Amino acid sequence: MNGGAAAYAAILAQATKASGVIVRVKPADFLAILARSDTPLIIAARGGIFTKHHQYMTSYKGIAFFTKSTDAFQLPRHAEVVVAEKIWIPD
């Protein structure tokens, strides 16, 4: 592993420790998780360089769930939505 790759691996490991567990799910599964919550807090952002997509993150029972979709979601009326400039999660 060269120096740049080793540095990137160290940064990625540190970001993973700081962010905790993030579970990437399919859009339908994300919407099912939202339906289980009485008052979900949803972080929403637009992403993508070549192909634009919508990104969503929420927490359920202490675990963060993330998904992205080419289409915007119809979010539950009872949800609290925070629009973020960007959502970044480690690969």
Structural notes for this entry:
The chain is of the alpha/beta class. It has a domain of 63 residues: Signal recognition particle alu RNA binding heterodimer, srp9/1. It is 30% helix and 32% strand. The protein contains two helices and five strands. The chain has a five-stranded mixed beta sheet with strand order 1-4-3-2-5, covered by helices on one side. A hairpin with a 2-residue loop joins β3 and β4. The radius of gyration is 15 Å and the shape is globular. The model has no long low-confidence stretch (mean pLDDT 85).
Short description:
The chain has 91 residues and is of the alpha/beta class. 30% of the residues lie in helices and 32% in strands. The protein has a domain at 21-83: Signal recognition particle alu RNA binding heterodimer, srp9/1.
Arithmetic mean of pLDDT: 85
Total beta strand runs: 5
Q: Give the biggest sheet.
A: 5 strands, mixed
N-C termini distance: 18 Å
- Compressed to H and E, one letter per element, the order equals HEHEEEE
How helical, in percent, are the residues? 25-40%
Spatial ordering of strands, largest sheet: 1-4-3-2-5
Low-confidence stretches: none
Write down the overall geometry: globular
Question: Total helix count?
Answer: 2
How big is the Rg?
Answer: 15 Å
Within the CATH hierarchy, at the fold level, what is the topology of the domain at 21-83? Answer: Signal recognition particle alu RNA binding heterodimer, srp9/1
CATH architecture of the domain at 21-83: 2-Layer Sandwich
Q: Which range does the strand content fall in?
A: 25-35%
Any idea of the CATH class of the domain at 21-83?
Alpha Beta
Structural class: alpha/beta
